[in-house]
Amino acid sequence: MASGGVILSNSFSFYQKRIVMSSRMQEKNGGASIPHVLSVAGSDSGAGAGIQADLKACAARGVYCSTVITSVTAQNTVGVQAVHAVPEDFVAQQLKSVLSDMQVDVVKTGMLPSVGVVKVLLQSLTEFSVRALVVDPVMVSTSGDVLAGPSILSTFREELLPMANIVTPNIKEASALLGGIRLETVADMRNAAELLHALGPRNVLVKGGDLPDSLDAVDIFFNGERFYELRSSRIKTRNTHGTGCTLASCIAAELAKGSPMLTAVRVAKRYVETALEYSKDILIGNGIQGPFDHLLRLKSGSQSFHRKDAFNPSDLFLYAVTDSGMNKKWGRSMVDAVAAAIQGGATIVQLREKDAETRDFLETAKSCLAVCRSHGVPLLINDRVDIALASDADGVHVGQSDMPASVARTLLGPEKIIGVSCKTIEQAQQAWIGGADYIGCGGVYSTNTKANNPTIGLDGLKTVCSASKLPVVAIGGINASNAGTVMEMGLPNLKGVAVVSALFDRENVLAETKKLHALLMEASSSKIQ
Ligand SMILES: Cc1ncc(COP(=O)(O)OP(=O)(O)O)c(N)n1
Ligand SMILES: Cc1nc(C(=O)O)sc1CCOP(=O)(O)O
Ligand SMILES: [Mg+2]
């Protein structure tokens, strides 16, 4: 065992052993190994910190996380109400169960409530080799509750820190580990990092989040040779419960993936910053310090998260597809055009901006989204999955030469809407397999809006509709004079019509949309399914 770290993290012998082991396992089980962090920490019933935060952080970073629970806390956003320590021999049993069976890359520690638990852990680490040990020296919760008594300090200093590849104290913890020295400035933090490093860990990260009077959050990273001042903007939010656990877990996760230490720290900091920014307004619990959202999904005000159904096929009834050329020609902005279409009865909108600069497209998408959201009308983006993601639009529409639906689904997740253009039964089948929500089928009639677009006619539409497992919207040359005919055919799965020029290559978008809407209502009153 190398001193000052569990095992040489870049040791050739480790990698050799790992490769041999994993290829043997792969031969045996036909599987691939994935980076693995073992979290040895306490449970937080409020799930903002502790084991629960570690699991979420590792999941968010794409790393497997196993757990050894050292203590069970009754805890919420107000504070820690009770602590129940897990017996030391049972902590030992959990360690053995995990380490004897699974190839753990990195061990990350959080709440270690007794000297006995630290010793049990150290014993396990001599029996089972891992690549790195990340020590988050949890002593006081963010609410101020004491989670590890002073008796443990000397064990931390003398036995645990010398084994650590990195230790990540906040200012209070760094001060406690160093016998109560005052830490009030960045210079004090540098000094503390150096003193802590002398205790044996290979790297030290002193977190300055609690440093008074600083505009940005400064952390000091010291690797024994160089100091790094890692600065990030201070995010104003009550939702900071669990940031320490998360940061340490994220460092462990990046190390498990093979990153060098400084990279792992930088990535972890950026991840925590992003998560805090993303969840700065969410409200969970009534206490002064709330949890944040590791998976960046609960963003306050995000209508898409709260949407009950990801997609309602009847939204395809009157599908307005924009065209910037047409709107420019008639001297109106995209947002005004979309607002008028919605007012006239459009039930779904697609932004089809073929020539827009990316930045302009994104801004337009955001503005149109605000209008659509305020009316409960879904907004899809034509072709550009990146714009859909960046604007948080409700989904995308892709064609046969765009990104495949299955890839778009992977990128957008299960809740977004995906539409695919199909002219044949095979394409419709493929769209269904790829995870699309609906298909656009055309050109039903010839069109000047899309160049070189083969017309499949009403017969082609009928063929695809009859075979489709997905709802269908008809497109191509549809206007007030033929929409009734299309809908009155009563084709299976046909839910509506998608229209560009009949709405937007007109002077009065509102009036044209109203007219088409009324026609569709009439035609569908007996026919639409
Ligand atoms: C509802 C709807 N159906 C079909 C299309 C056409 O998509 P695609 O084939 O990708 O062609 P472009 O629109 O990208 O030129 C559509 N946009 N919407
Ligand atoms: C964008 C588009 N896709 C089509 C397809 O057949 O897949 S036809 C088309 C253009 C539709 O415009 P208009 O309503 O002005 O005819
Ligand atoms: Mg396309």
TrEMBL record:
Domain Pyridoxamine kinase/Phosphomethylpyrimidine kinase: 44-287
Gene3D superfamilies documented for this protein: 3.40.1190.20, Aldolase class I
One Gene Ontology molecular-function label: metal ion binding
One BP term from GO: thiamine biosynthetic process
Pathway: Cofactor biosynthesis; thiamine diphosphate biosynthesis; thiamine phosphate from 4-amino-2-methyl-5-diphosphomethylpyrimidine and 4-methyl-5-(2-phosphoethyl)-thiazole: step 1/1; Cofactor biosynthesis; thiamine diphosphate biosynthesis; 4-amino-2-methyl-5-diphosphomethylpyrimidine from 5-amino-1-(5-phospho-D-ribosyl)imidazole: step 2/3
Domain Thiamine phosphate synthase/TenI positions: 318-503
Matching InterPro entries: Aldolase_TIM (IPR013785), HMP/HMP-P_kinase_dom (IPR004399), PM/HMP-P_kinase-1 (IPR013749), Ribokinase-like (IPR029056), ThiamineP_synth_sf (IPR036206), ThiamineP_synth_TenI (IPR022998), TMP_synthase (IPR034291)
Subcellular location: Plastid, Chloroplast
Entry keywords, A to Z: ATP-binding, Chloroplast, Kinase, Magnesium, Metal-binding, Multifunctional enzyme, Nucleotide-binding, Plastid, Thiamine biosynthesis, Transferase, Transit peptide
Cofactor(s) needed by this chain: Mg(2+)
GO-annotated cellular components: chloroplast
Keyword Glycoprotein part of the UniProt annotation: no
Pfam family, one: TMP-TENI
Recorded catalytic activity of this chain's protein: 4-amino-5-hydroxymethyl-2-methylpyrimidine + ATP = 4-amino-2-methyl-5-(phosphooxymethyl)pyrimidine + ADP + H(+); 4-methyl-5-(2-phosphooxyethyl)-thiazole + 4-amino-2-methyl-5-(diphosphooxymethyl)pyrimidine + H(+) = thiamine phosphate + diphosphate; 2-[(2R,5Z)-2-carboxy-4-methylthiazol-5(2H)-ylidene]ethyl phosphate + 4-amino-2-methyl-5-(diphosphooxymethyl)pyrimidine + 2 H(+) = thiamine phosphate + CO2 + diphosphate; 2-(2-carboxy-4-methylthiazol-5-yl)ethyl phosphate + 4-amino-2-methyl-5-(diphosphooxymethyl)pyrimidine + 2 H(+) = thiamine phosphate + CO2 + diphosphate
Major subcellular site: plastid
Function: Essential for thiamine biosynthesis. Bifunctional enzyme that catalyzes the phosphorylation of hydroxymethylpyrimidine phosphate (HMP-P) to HMP-PP and condenses 4-methyl-5-(beta-hydroxyethyl)thiazole monophosphate (THZ-P) and 2-methyl-4-amino-5-hydroxymethyl pyrimidine pyrophosphate (HMP-PP) to form thiamine monophosphate (TMP).
Family (UniProt): Belongs to the thiamine-phosphate synthase family.
NCBIfam families: HMP-P_kinase (TIGR00097), thiE (TIGR00693)
Name the UniProt record assigns to this protein: Uncharacterized protein
